[in-house]
Amino acid sequence: MQGRVLIIAGSDSGGGAGIQADIKAVTALNGFAMTAITALTAQNTLGVHAIHEVPEAFIIRQIEVVLEDLGADVIKLGMLHRASVIHAVADALERLAPDVRMVLDPVMVAKGGHALLEPDAMAAMKDRLLPRAYLITPNVPEAEALTGAKIESVEDLAVAGDKLARLKCGAVLVKGGHLSGNTVTDVLWRDGSRPQVFTSPRIDTNHTHGTGCTLASAIACGLAQGLELSRAVKRARNYVYEAILTAPKYGHGHGPLNHAHTVGDYTGE
Asked: Is residue 100 in some structural domain?
């Protein structure tokens, strides 16, 4: 099963994160990626230099024409930076895809520190998107912002997951990459079951731009292909780990991953 993933997110002109990373990840894992672009960013490895907003009506039109013709097995949500965009997208998905599972990456801050979520959009996200999500994938700063709780240890990841699950979302993968230590720990929390812990060695590198977008899209692809959630998370983490390990080391800041490491050499002969 190839798996159709509709990605609703912003564009990264540097190619490392956002829609560009999403498409690369889904394609590299043999899924079929479709898009509805919510914002255009002038961005490189040094940061976000400008954001050009896409009108809500055009965002919704992209969603409509894709779902009406191609359909989707899973929907992945990334950068939705305005409350008005969140409400418009939530309305459209309730109308057009009420039964399609949704993976929400609550994109709030770019790797370089630029805010990607307006302050009044936080309440809209909690109210409209979290209860609808099959899975949310916050990193430590995002989980802290959503819960109001400080996360300083692996144990705190599970506590944050529990608090986020109380916001009625289906499952929570709290990513611990921002914590210190030689091991990166992520915790998958599902209501009614014990937290599931995933670990991997930390790679000492500055080339981690787009890891959050890539991981969420890789999980969404796995779900679209029929994988159970834990298996989808495990495969996605392995994919991202190798993508970081083999990063091309482009740029002068936080460089992109090697999304194409699953693709063999092709000579055309």
From this structure: yes
Catalytic residues: 175, 208, 210-213
Instruction: Identify the domain containing residue 184 by its residue range.
Output: 4-258
For residue 226, which of 3, 25, 34 has the smallest C-alpha distance? 3
Query: What confidence score (pLDDT) does residue 57 get?
Result: 98
Residue 159 has pLDDT above 90, yes or no: no
- 19 domain-assigned: yes
Counted domains in the chain: 1
- Residue 59 belongs to a domain: yes
Q: Nearest-5° angle of CA 173, CA 129, CA 143? A: 40
Using CA atoms, how far residue 236 sits from 66, 116, 175, in Å, is 25, 24, 13
Determine how many CB atoms are found less than 10 A away from the CB of residue 40.
17
Strands 171-175 and 183-190, bridge-based pairing = antiparallel
Do residues 31 and 88 lie in contact, with contact meaning Cβ atoms separated by under 8 Å?
no
Confidence of residue 185 (pLDDT cuts 50, 70, 90): very high
User: If you search the block for the tokens 């991953």, which residue do you land on?
Assistant: 257
| Structure tokens given for 133 | 């999500």
Mean pLDDT of the chain, nearest integer: 92
Is the whole model's pTM more than 0.85, yes or no?
Answer: yes
Rounded percentage of the chain residues whose pLDDT exceeds 70: 97
Whether 143 contacts 164, CB under 8 Å? yes
